[in-house]
Structure formats: structure tokens, C-alpha cells
Amino acid sequence: MTKGQQLRELPDFRELAGSFGAVAAEYDRGRPGYPEELFDELERLWGRGLKGARILDVGAGTGIATRLLAARGADVVAVEPSAGMAARFQAVSPQLPLVRGVGDELPFHDRSADLIGYAQAFHWTDPERSVPEAIRVLRPGGALAAWWNLFDETVPWVRARDERLSSALSGRYHGYGRVDDLTAPLAAAGLEVLRTRLRWQRQVSVEQVVDNLTSRSFLASLTPERREPLLATERAALLAEFPDGRVVEPYVLDLTVAVKRH
Predict the structure, then answer these.
(1) Which residues pair with 144 in a beta bridge?
(2) In what order do the strands lie in the sheet with 98-99?
(3) For the chain, which residues make up each domain, given as ranges?
């Protein structure tokens, strides 16, 4: 069983998956973006440029990746199931097109896209449905690209936070696990799979890190009464580690590009 299957079989999977709309503002304020190197590597692995490419950003959320893809010259359409996230997207990026939909049932014609991207989102799909859907919608030579910002747990304070949350949210807390497990169905479907990992970091305020945590499904799906004490503990731990209130937050960025050759 892959990590993605394990996540989908959690008793409260639907609750977790549906929790983002209520924290859309925190998501937009706190979630990290992506360095330009990610898109350079995506182009290198794909063998094509993003400029002028027809791209679907599936699970677009508040549009963090959508805006960056558009800035690279892509003809990008956001695809987002959550009403709350879609409303935030339209508030902050009204110039970009958005379609309500899910990766398991893409509302697009056959062979109508050059690239289908899943930024922090592929693990919320069912690959038995989403991979055939992507293959249907992609043109020959097109690609499915999935990427995740993973907290770098080789850094002691990040690892300590993971252990605290894992203990406090036993049975509910989840990370992404092994990304190669999440993307295993791509090769099984006959796509050419290429992968790379990048390391990067951002410097942000303690409150942005707290917003980032608030937007994670394992906390977003809690009642405020249960969530706030956990966030208070993490805020205090951050201030102990970074007394000036500026956090150096390290990430490992995992990118998988699966090319449809025919």
C-alpha cells in the first residue's frame, strides 16, 4: 500500500481533504512559494519550455503555483474543488482563469493540455482515476508534473516539531511520506518518469509559519478549541529557536515529471 493509499484510507480522509476552504486566508499568507529553479528543472526534465504551454494547475488552491506559472509565460488554467479556496484565488488573482473541478474527473477535452501540474496536490487524488484522466487530457509529448515542498527534517528544530505534532495528533497527523511511493502509479501507466530534488529555504515571520501550520489539513480540520493550544505551543517553540521572530524555514522540494510520449 502506498502512502497516498494510506492517506485516502484514513477514517477522516474526506474531512481532511475538505478542510482547506475554511483556512484559505492562512493558506495564502503562510504557504511557501517555489524557487525559480523548480521551473527551470521542470523544463529540463520535460524537454520543453513553459512559455506558451497550455497548463492545467490542478488543486490550485489560492493560486500560489498558478501565478508563478503565469509569470513564466504559460497559458495556465487553475482547477480547484474547494469553494473557499476558489474564492480566495479569485480575490487575489482575478486576472487568471479558474475552473471548479477535481483531478479525478478533469472538465477538459481529450488532448487539450500540454502540462498538468499538481503543486502539493497529487496525493489528494485517486491515481486509479487521476492518472488515466491526465493521460486522456494530455497531448502527445505532454507531461504530468507533481511537486511537493517537504519540511527538511534533517534540521533539528523541524524534526522536533514533527515529533511533537505526531505525538499530539496520533492517528491523524500525516506527512507526505515517500514521494516515490505517491508517484509509483505514473510509471505503471506507461509514462516516462523523471525526478529530481532541490533544497531551498525562506526567511519569514513566526506568524507566517503559524499560518502555514494552520493551513495543514491535520490542524485545519480540528476545532479551534483543540487547534489553538497546539499552535500556541509551536509559536512558543519558534520564538525560543528564533528570538528575533524571523524564521529560516528549510525545505526539500521534490519534483516528478511523467511524460506522455505518444
Answers:
(1) 116, 258
(2) 98-99, 75-79, 54-58, 113-119, 138-151, 246-259, 192-205
(3) 3-152+176-202+250-259
Q: For domain 3-152+176-202+250-259, which CATH number applies: 3.10.350.10, 1.20.1250.20, 3.40.50.150, 3.65.10.10?
A: 3.40.50.150
Pairing verdict, β 138-151 and 192-205: unpaired
Which of 169, 193, 172, 190 shows the shortest CA–CA distance to 182? 193
pTM confidence score: 0.92
CB 106 within 8 Å of CB 58? yes
Cα–Cα distance, 32 to 129 (Å, whole number): 28
| Gap between the Cα atoms of 28 and 161, Å rounded | 22
Helix (H) or strand (E) holding 57: strand 54-58
SS (H, E, C) 109-165: CCCCEEEEEEECCHHHCCHHHHHHHHHHHEEEEEEEEEEEEEECCCCHHHHHHHHHH
CA terminus-to-terminus distance, the chain = 29
Per-residue pLDDT of the chain (262 residues; tens, 9 = 90+): 444 444 445 446 666 767 898 999 999 999 999 999 999 999 999 999 999 999 999 999 999 999 999 999 999 999 999 999 999 999 999 999 999 999 999 999 999 999 999 999 999 999 999 999 999 999 999 999 999 999 999 999 999 999 999 999 876 666 666 677 888 899 999 999 999 999 999 999 999 999 999 999 999 999 999 999 999 999 999 999 999 999 999 999 999 999 999 8
The span from the CA of 145 to the CA of 78, in Å, is: 14
Cell of 215: 493551513
Question: For helices 224-241 and 206-214, what crossing angle results, to 10°?
Answer: 150
